[in-house]
Amino acid sequence: MSIQQCDLMLDPFPHGGGTAALEQIWMGVPIVTLHGNQAGGRTTASILGCMGRPGWVAHSQEEYSAKAVRWVVDPSCLVEAAEVRKTLRKELLDSPAVKGYVAAVEEAYRAMVKEKLCAMPTREVECAS
Question: Is 39 within a domain?
Answer without folding.
Answer: yes
